[in-house]
Every structure is written in structure tokens, then in C-alpha cells.
Amino acid sequence: MLTDPLADMLTRIRNALKAKFEKADIPSSRLKVSVANLLKREGYIKDFKILSSDNNKKILRVFLRYDEQNQSIITNIKRVSKPSLRIYARKGNIPSVRSGLGLVILSTSKGVKTDREARDLNIGGEVLCFVW
Hints:
The chain contains three helices and eight strands, in the order αβαββββββαβ. By secondary structure, it is an alpha+beta fold.
């Protein structure tokens, strides 16, 4: 049993990027699919698929993205809010990563959003992770 499934997802992506893998397989959940959807929409990953395996378990397959020099598009991905220490940001105090060049993923009352979307909707939430 995992105590922090989202941290496990981010670690699997980070390890796959370091090993220059084409894809990373992760046990699926709705939160992980939402985060993968944001990463795809923002251009950090190529694509993702939800596969079903034995025992009716679903697997989220994330296809990683690299540039022409075979360097990963994601330089670093960091979990911020943890089960032992939740980090929340109000609508006026949403952090930015690398002066806006990175991405902050938030869990809000309107679903999982990026920092820019949360500022546009004028809502805050739990800061899940930083990506740059």
C-alpha cells in the first residue's frame, strides 16, 4: 500500500526520464489522470493512455517527451504538499515556478488546475507539485 500515490507517480516519471525511457507505467487513479492531462496540455509529456491489466487494475502509461538533443522536456518535477504536511495557497498567494516558466499544479474545488488557470478563476487550493 502506498501512502502517497501522487509522489509515486512523480518519482516514476522522474526515474524514467533519467533512464531515457520512452514511457512510464503507473497505477491509475482519477487524480493521476488529471495531472497527466495537465502535463500533456502544457507540453511536458507526449501523451498518456489508460490500459487495463489483470485483476481489473488500470495502468496509466505516460509517454515522455524529449527534445532534439535527447534531453527531457521536464527538467525537474517536485512534490510540494504531502500527506504529512499539506500546503495550501489562497487565491492571491499562488506560487510561481521559475518566474512563470514552470508549472504549478493545484487541486482546487473546481478540479486539478494549473497556477494560471487558478489565477484566472480567482480560486486557491492545495499545491500538489512544481514542474519545470
